[in-house]
Write a structure and sequence with these properties.
Largest sheet: 6 strands, mixed
Number of strands: 36
Radius of gyration: 34 Å
Shape: globular
Distance between the termini: 64 Å
């Protein structure tokens, strides 16, 4: 018996096919489709079914389906198994029907029918499986696909994908196309692919750069190997190559000609065809909206009175020159054929049909007899933690963990293996597993709406058949009503996600962030085809090997072991003692939703079993630390490739993130905490290193950088700065040299020995779609994704600023070095010293990716060049450092405009996706998504002019109108009242409060830095609090508005009762 939700074939499809043949063709047409078993025709006088998988019609007797049950297939939830290909087919709506026992079929060819265990899928479109439509060019003889399913393609004019999301999702889910050609998408860079809800497709886009209209898109089923072909063109033309089996690759184009008067479009299309055809013949499928209403495509003549005859004839000449045949012969907008599909594969066309559209254009459905290169996604077995018997697991493991304590084994490997063995055996007993499955992508479509959609299709067919104006108006009204209902039910579904009264606030919060994260994701974790030599690799195993080779290629050569045992420093770190309560606390703090490591034990297991695992893990951790031996499992990493930017088929554009054992991460947390406490207590780190440190961070780094610039500009100086770009810094850390640096800083021999074991003998393997690469040795670097890695990197890079005359600021590997322009030579000398540093410590800078900028208030600023490795560093008017845009005048206009644009973009995202009437939910979305963008590192750039600040206030006012559902055209409602109602303070006030909070942190925890910029007064007054600061003289308004001076004035005005004046509680 088969179970599961599978592709369906409706009886209605076949009934409509019979009706259509009877009324439009002669008897000979019944031979178009022969039974796949007996080879006799399946016509209107017989009963038949179509197998979705082998794409073949069969008599029901040849499939062992009883005639008495045939009529119930269209109204049942049955699954029948094809005798030819042994694939399951699903029929949609009523109770299960068993086959009659009196049907005699050989045992090896018995078609079975069963009831699926999950909810029935929605029926396929009537036109989805029916025979060749009469509008296909009569010269085409349908050529059945020899291997698997034919290529299905739809050509859609969208007229705003974001506004037609419900209809779009329904269209894709129903027609199940392999390739989608879309025009007039009306998309822009602020709308991510995730918002289109097409997780099973690879999406290629060319959005219109100016304006809110136009745009073309091609979506290809992710199981098909495809890649974008970069061809420069001013026209809206997008090319994608699709790999086939037993056939040369097919080049698919999506084209949009805005209007018939466009004279240049055809020449641009001709140039792209010339470029593609220059070396060898190609197979083309060119679709889109060409806006050529004058052609009568049935006889290739211009309609009487047609305008712009030249544009029409130029396009026809192009088709003739490249051997292309235009296949659409039915109107796609009113009486005109505007949406075309042209191909040089006319003999491979199975059928062409015009179906109801989602805009005022109809959709062209087309099928080719081409076997595609499918990559099936394997189903995985996953643990169902929500159904686990945790109490039974605790009872089962409790005595076993106690025995491990009693039978203490001094070997960390043996001890860990025993703990792991007991846990994995208990998992098999107490936690169920299931195969992954794809969820219904349209849960908001109920039976009532589905019936309305089917009624709409029937109206469309009647309208086309009769050609009645009255029917056309009726159909259009019905179509718009259905689309409106689709949008409403989709919005209601999203609203219920966020406001379900049966769910706790924590569950609703998790739902909200899961939804938002999915909508904003860029599919960075998916790996498409990768280029190896001159070919594209699609096999998951091969891709894993390519990426693993790329990741290990950046490792630095190992050096001889440096001797560190003789080093004894006064600040030597004491040995670490592992505390059981601390381990228990770490176990309870684990995020249960994080991924498991190579051992397969997830954080959820450790968290649920914390009470019985704390003791044996404490013993294991202390033994490992004292003996300087790390279990072998903890040295193996499963690497997840994360796409950065650039072309997705280039392996170098991915970065590795290591998944390591959760038990190892728990111990790393403990050791990192001890190590960082030691480093901060003994002032090990350079004061200008702000990465991964408590009471430091991006904002304070930027505050000090901007204050340095403002002070020098106030003194009439110019500042030359250089932003340095490291190449794979974390991956190039030399292990032996790192151990030496740890010893030089006084780290205990106990911890150094453990780190040496932790870094030695490491290996990694890349995993893609369940396929693993071969293991590769990790000879350098600190694992990205490990807990200890960032702390190790800070120790390694800590001495970079030593012996430099210029100021260097670091945030991990983000480095900026600067000096006054008059000390230009000193800055150049420091760059030479940095070259020597990178050579000594196996690091590497990218000179071409570094940037030089001069901060100046002069009309003619200094124009001097800096060099790194004899390469001139590129000069820039603006630089981005730690996410903030700095310009030569430091007026913040560029930064304000950037974040305002991003803020408006996020408001548009909320408007499109957070479809709820709940002000609370929308206010949460604004506060958590948009406002942080408007306020990131605001204390550093709050010296911007009040005029610039008003730009940001305008963004918040738009957000308030969005939250309260006030239309943009409503000018009567006061936004000030809305802000008060929503309890949204002005952003300028929040920035002022933020500056005071940070100033308080400096005052209480880091006065040594504060004293460099401003001095404490040291006197008290009856009217003022005693923690006053002197306000120095300034020569410019810009310096007066800088962080330390401006905030000191506000600080001095605080009342004595202010909590900011009191030290923070520990």
């Amino acid at each position: 018996m088969s179970t599961g939700k599978l592709p369906s074939i409706s009886l209605l499809v076949f009934q409509y096919y019979i009706y259509y043949i009877k009324n439009t063709t002669d008897q000979s047409c019944s031979t178009l489709y022969l039974c796949g078993t007996c080879k006799h025709p399946v016509g209107w006088d017989t009963k038949g079914v179509l197998c979705e998988h082998c794409d073949t019609w069969y008599h029901i007797s040849c499939q062992a389906i009883p005639s008495a049950n045939y009529s119930q297939l269209d109204h049942s939830s049955l699954i029948w198994t094809c005798v030819a290909c042994n694939s399951n087919n699903h029929s949609p709506t009523s109770p299960a029907i068993l086959l009659d026992d009196d049907v005699n079929v050989p045992a090896t060819h018995t078609s079975s029918v069963s009831e699926p265990s999950n909810e029935a899928s929605i029926d396929s479109l009537d036109y989805d499986h029916q025979p060749l439509h009469e509008s296909s060019p009569t010269k085409y003889k349908p050529t059945p696909a020899k291997h698997g399913r034919s290529l299905r393609l739809i050509n859609v004019n969208c007229q705003s994908l974001p506004d037609r999301k419900g209809a779009w999702i329904n269209l894709v889910h129903t027609t199940k196309p392999d390739v989608i050609i879309a025009t007039e998408t009306w998309l822009n860079s602020s709308i991510g692919n995730a918002e289109l809800e097409m997780d099973s497709y690879t999406i290629y886009r060319r959005d219109r750069k100016e304006g809110n209209h136009g745009g073309v898109l091609i979506a290809v089923n992710s199981a098909i190997t495809s890649t974008e072909i970069e061809i420069k063109s001013e026209a809206e033309i997008l090319w994608v190559k699709i790999q086939c089996v037993g056939h040369r690759d097919i080049y698919v184009a999506s084209c949009y000609r805005p209007n018939v008067a466009d004279k240049s479009f055809t020449s641009h299309l001709r140039k792209s065809l010339d470029e593609l055809s220059s070396k060898r013949p190609k197979s083309f499928i060119i679709g889109g909206d060409f806006n050529l209403p004058g052609w009568n495509w049935s006889d290739l003549t211009l309609k009487p009175g047609s305008t712009y005859a030249t544009q029409h004839t130029e396009f026809r000449d192009l088709l003739d020159d490249y051997g292309l045949t235009q296949c659409v012969l039915e109107p796609t907008r009113r009486s005109n054929i505007l949406d075309l599909i042209s191909t040089n594969l006319p003999d491979q066309v199975n059928r062409v049909k015009v179906i109801p559209g989602i805009s005022d254009h109809e959709i062209v459905f087309m099928e080719f007899s081409v076997h595609l290169n499918y990559r099936k996604q394997p189903r995985r077995r996953v643990w169902v933690y929500n159904k686990a018997d945790w109490s039974g697991m605790l009872e089962y493991l409790g005595p076993r963990m106690a025995r491990i304590e009693q039978e203490y084994n001094p070997c960390p490997n043996a001890l860990w293996n025993k703990i792991k063995q007991e846990i994995t055996e208990a998992m098999d007993i107490f936690i169920p597993r299931r195969l992954t499955k794809r969820k219904d992508s349209r849960p908001w479509i109920d039976k009532k709406l589905h019936r309305l959609i089917k009624t709409k299709r029937r109206l469309y067919k009647r309208c086309k058949k009769r050609g009645s104006t009255h029917l056309e108006k009726r159909y259009n009204l019905y179509k718009h009503s259905v689309q409106k209902l689709l949008r409403k039910q989709h919005a209601d579904y999203v609203h219920r996600l966020f406001t379900d009264s049966d769910k706790s606030s924590a569950e609703l919060s998790k739902r909200f962030w899961t939804y938002v994260k999915h909508k904003r994701s860029a599919a960075v974790s998916t790996v498409g085809p990768l280029k190896k030599g001159n070919r594209l690799v699609t096999s998951a195993k091969e891709k894993a090997e390519i990426l693993n080779e790329q990741f290990i290629s950046v490792f630095s050569e190992p050096s001889d072991r440096e001797e560190y045992s003789h080093l004894t420093l006064s600040s030597t770190m004491p040995d670490i003692i592992i505390d059981e309560n601390g381990v228990h606390k770490q176990l309870k703090a684990l995020n249960p939703y994080k991924a498991a490591g190579p051992d397969g034990i997830s954080p959820r297991i450790f968290r649920e079993l914390a009470d019985i695992l704390a003791a044996p893990l404490t013993t294991l951790f202390q033994t490992s630390l004292d003996r300087g031996v790390v279990p072998r499992d903890w040295k193996t990493a499963s690497v997840c490739p994360i796409f950065k930017k650039g072309e997705k088929y280039v392996a170098a554009n991915y970065r590795p993130v290591s998944l390591t054992c959760v038990a190892s991460k728990i111990l790393e947390h403990i050791l990192t905490s001890q190590l960082m406490t030691f480093a901060e207590t003994h002032n090990v780190f350079h004061p200008n290193q702000h990465g991964f440190r408590k009471n430091h961070g991006c904002e304070k780094q930027l505050i000090e950088l901007v204050s340095d610039i403002a002070h020098n500009l106030d003194q009439g100086e110019e500042i030359e700065a250089c932003v340095l770009d490291f190449s794979k810094a974390f991956d190039k850390v030399n292990h032996n040299k790192l151990l030496l640096k740890l010893a030089q800083q006084g780290v205990s021999h106990q911890l150094i020995s453990w780190v040496e074991s932790f870094l030695s003998g490491r290996s990694q393997k890349v995993i893609i779609d369940g396929e693993e690469s071969s293991e590769a040795a990790v000879t350098s670097g600190v694992p990205q994704g490990s807990v200890l890695g960032p702390a190790m990197f800070l120790f390694y890079i800590n001495d970079l600023p030593d012996n430099l005359q210029s100021t260097v600021r670091l945030f991990a590997d983000d480095t900026i070095v600067y000096n006054t322009a008059k000390n230009h030579q000193s800055l150049q000398d420091d760059l030479v010293k940095l070259e020597m540093w990178e050579d000594a410590w196996n690091m590497e800078f990218h000179p071409s990716k570094c940037q030089q900028i001069t901060f100046s208030r002069k009309r003619q600023p200094a124009d001097q060049s800096l060099y790194l490795h004899d390469t001139m560093i590129p000069k820039a008017e603006q630089i981005k450092y730690l996410g903030v845009t700095l310009d030569t005048k430091t007026n913040w206009n560029a930064h304000i405009n950037n974040i305002a644009a991003r803020g408006n973009s996020i408001l548009s995202f909320i408007r499109r996706n957070v479809l709820t009437t709940s002000e609370t939910v929308k206010a949460t979305a604004y506060k958590q998504l948009a406002r942080p963008v408007l306020e990131y590192a605001s204390a550093a750039w709050d010296s911007a002019s009040d005029t610039a600040g008003k730009i940001l206030e305008a963004v918040q006012r738009r957000g308030a109108r969005l939250i309260c559902g006030i239309r943009r055209t409503d000018r009567k409602t006061s936004t000030t009242g809305l802000l008060q109602k929503l309890n949204l303070p002005l952003l300028s006030q929040r920035r002022s409060d933020r500056r005071l909070q940070i100033f308080s942190q400096y005052h209480h925890t880091n006065k040594s830095v504060l004293s460099k910029y401003i001095q404490q007064a040291g006197y008290s007054s009856a009217r003022r609090h005693p923690e006053q600061y002197f306000i120095p003289q300034s020569n410019s308004v810009h310096h007066q508005r800088s962080f330390f001076i401006r905030t000191a004035k506000d600080w001095n005005e605080l009342p004595a009762s202010s909590s900011l004046l009191r030290p923070p509680s520990v």
